[in-house]
């Protein structure tokens, strides 16, 4: 079998188009421009790339982008003061604090200081609790993007066996909640899972969010299953020349694609959908903040 490739890049472009349509409507009918504030502490080069690309795409869909770059040694007090200012700024509808934060900053404290209504990452404990109890919330962007692609490909996910590899608060756990919400039978695997290949081989859907380059190989996959590769790993690529690197996922693409029914590539899979969902969440947050009906099909 050769898997169908789920084109996250093309899907993300469609989501951004929808978002742009809603932004135009908000501007014309209500004179409101949605605004997204991104806070970056420190100078991690990978984070800088993401922040730049988020800012660019935010502007491309017609929203306002506010970038706040703080020194790596910024105090917790100063960061919390900035978040407080953004919480109270009416032109800011979404706030994202890029993770990971430098070690001296308490991530939980910082995230929980964001107004939950502006928490477009969906990481605030209130949003986590709302998602876990099936109530309306802000849904984390990466799992939301995965869910959109799965729903688009399968239609209904009801009754499917899904295995999520990874139990982080930002990907694995919310992904499992969303799949459960769509009535999958969900298993969460992690570094202590025994005979993990046997677990994944039973799954109709495998979502890999591990952070280990190409760990999941074709023999882990049931023939015809759908593989969603969340991993973003930069590895050395001496074949491309000295000092060159390439991006790979947590799944070994070629061997998985031989067995799977469908698979997302890296790059061009989950990554672009994550940013598109961030923009979607910002529009949703803006509509809710203004008591307007929220766009359909852009949230879970
Ligand atoms: N495409 C996108 O938009 C995004 C991509 N990512 C990427 O997704 C990946 C995961 O990110 P994140 O969730 O933040 O990572 P974390 O490091 O927070 O979590 C990794 C999870 O994988 C588990 N794990 C580690 N090693 C193994 C193993 N050998 N077998 C089984 N499970 C294992 C860990 O288990 P345990 O809990 O037991 O330690 C943990 O639960 C990374 O590659 C990251 O770059 C992340 C965010 C967005
Ligand atoms: N508060 C917070 N929210 C996040 O959502 C968040 C974060 N912190 N910290 C870092 C991770 C990582 N992340 C990615 C987003 C897009 C791509 C993406 O677009 N990737 C492209 C390739 C980009 C490249 O070439 O480097 C692709 O997969 O095709 C990747 C990774 C969001 N994260």
UniProtKB/TrEMBL annotation:
A Gene Ontology cellular-component term: cytosol
InterPro entries the record matches: Aminoacid_DH-like_N_sf, NAD(P)-bd_dom_sf, THF_DH/CycHdrlase, THF_DH/CycHdrlase_cat_dom, THF_DH/CycHdrlase_CS, THF_DH/CycHdrlase_NAD-bd_dom
Molecular function GO terms recorded: methenyltetrahydrofolate cyclohydrolase activity; methylenetetrahydrofolate dehydrogenase (NADP+) activity
Domain Tetrahydrofolate dehydrogenase/cyclohydrolase catalytic, residue spans: 6-121
Positions that bind NADP(+): 166-168, 232
EC number: 1.5.1.5, 3.5.4.9
Catalytic activity: (6R)-5,10-methylene-5,6,7,8-tetrahydrofolate + NADP(+) = (6R)-5,10-methenyltetrahydrofolate + NADPH; (6R)-5,10-methenyltetrahydrofolate + H2O = (6R)-10-formyltetrahydrofolate + H(+)
Entry keyword set: Amino-acid biosynthesis, Histidine biosynthesis, Hydrolase, Methionine biosynthesis, Multifunctional enzyme, NADP, One-carbon metabolism, Oxidoreductase, Purine biosynthesis
Keyword Transmembrane appears in the UniProt entry: no
GO annotation (BP), single: L-histidine biosynthetic process
UniProt pathway annotation: One-carbon metabolism; tetrahydrofolate interconversion
All residue ranges annotated as the Tetrahydrofolate dehydrogenase/cyclohydrolase NAD(P)-binding domain in the record: 140-288
Reported function: Catalyzes the oxidation of 5,10-methylenetetrahydrofolate to 5,10-methenyltetrahydrofolate and then the hydrolysis of 5,10-methenyltetrahydrofolate to 10-formyltetrahydrofolate.
PANTHER family: C-1-TETRAHYDROFOLATE SYNTHASE, CYTOPLASMIC (PTHR48099:SF5), C-1-TETRAHYDROFOLATE SYNTHASE, CYTOPLASMIC-RELATED (PTHR48099)
Classification via HAMAP family: THF_DHG_CYH
Self-association and partners: Homodimer.
NCBIfam families noted in UniProt: PRK10792.1, PRK14186.1, PRK14188.1
Family according to the record: Belongs to the tetrahydrofolate dehydrogenase/cyclohydrolase family.
Protein name: Bifunctional protein FolD
Naturally occurring in which organism (per UniProt): Roseovarius litoreus
Record lineage: Bacteria, Pseudomonadati, Pseudomonadota, Alphaproteobacteria, Rhodobacterales
Gene that encodes it: folD
């Amino acid at each position: 079998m050769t898997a169908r490739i789920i084109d996250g890049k093309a899907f993300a472009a469609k989501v951004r188009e929808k978002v742009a349509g809603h932004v135009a409507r908000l501007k014309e009918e209500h004179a409101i421009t949605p605004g997204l504030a991104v806070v970056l502490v420190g100078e991690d080069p990978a984070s800088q790339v993401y922040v730049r690309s988020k800012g660019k795409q935010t502007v491309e869909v017609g929203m306002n982008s506010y970038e706040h770059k703080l020194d790596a040694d910024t105090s917790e007090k100063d960061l919390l003061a900035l978040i407080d200012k953004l919480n109270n700024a009416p032109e800011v509808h979404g706030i994202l604090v890029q993770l990971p934060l430098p070690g001296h900053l308490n991530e939980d404290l910082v995230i929980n200081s964001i107004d939950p209504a502006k928490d477009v990452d969906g990481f605030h404990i209130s949003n986590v609790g709302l998602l876990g109890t099936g109530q309306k919330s802000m849904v984390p962007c990466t799992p939301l993007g995965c869910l959109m692609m799965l729903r688009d490909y399968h239609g209904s996910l009801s009754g499917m066996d899904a295995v999520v590899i990874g139990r982080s608060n930002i990907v694995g756990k919310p992904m499992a909640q969303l799949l459960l919400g769509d009535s999958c039978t969900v298993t969460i695997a992690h570094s202590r899972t025994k005979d993990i290949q046997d677990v994944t081989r039973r799954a109709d859907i495998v979502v890999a969010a591990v952070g280990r380059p190409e760990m999941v190989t074709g023999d882990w996959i049931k023939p015809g299953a759908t593989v969603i590769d969340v991993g973003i790993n930069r590895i050395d690529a001496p074949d491309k020349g000295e000092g060159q690197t390439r991006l790979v996922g947590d799944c070994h693409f070629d061997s998985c694609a031989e067995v799977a029914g469908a698979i997302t590539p890296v790059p061009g899979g989950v990554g672009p959908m994550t940013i598109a969902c961030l923009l979607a969440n910002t529009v949703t947050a803006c509509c809710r903040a203004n008591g307007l009906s929220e766009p359909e099909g852009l949230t879970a």
